[in-house]
Amino acid sequence: MTAQMQPDRHARIMNALHAYSGHQSKGDPANPPIVSSVKFNLPGDPSAPYVYGRYGTPTLDATEAALSALEAAPVIGFPSGMAAITATLLSVVSPGDQILLPSDGYFTVRSLTKEFLEPLGVQADYVATRDINEHDLNGYKLVWVETPSNPGLDICDLRDLSVRAKKANSLLIADNTSATPFLQPVLDLGADISVSSDTKAISGHGDALFGHVASRHGSLMDRIRLWRKLSGSISGPWESFLVYRGLQTLEVRLQRMCANAMAVARLASEHSAVESVRYPGLARDPSHSIARTQMADFGFLVGLTFGTRKQADQFLTYGPSIYPATSFGSVHTSGERRARWGDAVPEGAVRLSVGCEPTDRLLDAIQEALDAL
Ligand SMILES: Cc1ncc(COP(=O)(O)O)c(C=O)c1O
């Protein structure tokens, strides 16, 4: 990441932290209230800041304002990452369109496309993340990328892709879940739309489902907002609040998580029980050189491949310091074998989501779990 992006990131996190409290009158609460009312006082002409819970609530607005400061772009919140992805795809594509998707990204996006978009006459092509920069983009209505990819942690060059997507008249849409806009400002790198599962690192505690879409193209955002209003895909106030609260500590959590991930990746690289390690922060990792140019840090996901499925399962259940679960990006280190969901990875491949634990204790726990194999 170029030095000139650093101050921007910090200004954005400052703005996100003060997005709510910075616009107050004497006596207002410091944090957004959890407004559970779906009815709002609405006599006469039905125009008011809030009219009905399905159109928006004050709590969701506060969360969107904070996310918007982080993205430096308008944001629309959704009740999950998949809801944000569905809204984006269905707002943009029409029957007869061709779209390009990653063959190695989050598998549910491929299932959604096969089950619901292809039967409507949308034609999807698939390409691996590491090959997309060489792929011809002509003819695609949209080019969808996920970088770093989940679970393989391959990275594509967003600046190059955005130039080529513009030339091909395609929209570039980046799923930024695994990096977050704080580590990788995909809109500044040229994506037209940023989508994210905030169920992961943005909320950060594994206790809220949420997603968002951000874009600087007003007409696209109008269409996505209309989709939300008509489909009813709106987040409740409690989840919205949890995301607002989690976002307040995003920067400090990511600092610890990225530092821990680097330490774990180094330890695992030197351990004989591990066949191979993927972490974009390792100098010999195939993603390293591009990661350095577009990420401020290398993230919290580490790929560990063991010789057998049994060893992987044993590692994941060795002790209380590694929580065996799907999902990622929260304060606790957790992991899973992705082959159990059908991802095209070896049976012994573990996606480890490194948490905020004290580094020395976490390394001791990982060392012990590896030594026991
Ligand atoms: C990269 C990526 N995008 C989107 C999603 C979907 O998010 P959610 O579970 O919040 O619907 C996930 C979930 O794991 C993911 O890993």
Describe this structure in words.
The protein is an alpha/beta fold and 373 residues long. Helix 1 packs antiparallel against helix 2 (58-71) and helix 2 (58-71) packs parallel to helix 8. Mean pLDDT is 96; it is low at 3-7. It has two domains: 3-247, Aspartate Aminotransferase, domain 2 (3-Layer(aba) Sandwich); 250-371, Alpha-Beta Complex (Aspartate Aminotransferase, domain 1). It contains twelve helices and twelve strands. It has a seven-stranded mixed β-sheet with strand order 1-7-6-5-4-2-3, with helices on both faces. The protein has a five-stranded mixed β-sheet with strand order 8-9-12-11-10, with helices on one face. The protein has helices at residues 6-18, 58-71, 81-92, 107-117, 158-167, 180-183, 218-231, 237-247, 250-269, 288-294, 309-316, 359-371, and strands at 75-78, 98-102, 123-127, 142-146, 171-175, 193-197, 211-215, 276-278, 301-305, 323-324, 334-337, 349-353. The structure holds pyridoxal-5'-phosphate. Pyridoxal-5'-phosphate binds at residues 80-82, 106, 146, 150, 175, 177-178, 197, 199, 209, 211, 327.
Topology (elements, then pairings):
Layout: H1 6-18, H2 58-71, E1 75-78, H3 81-92, E2 98-102, H4 107-117, E3 123-127, E4 142-146, H5 158-167, E5 171-175, H6 180-183, E6 193-197, E7 211-215, H7 218-231, H8 237-247, H9 250-269, E8 276-278, H10 288-294, E9 301-305, H11 309-316, E10 323-324, E11 334-337, E12 349-353, H12 359-371
Helix pairs in contact: 1-2, 2-8, 3-4, 3-7, 9-12
Bound molecules: pyridoxal-5'-phosphate.
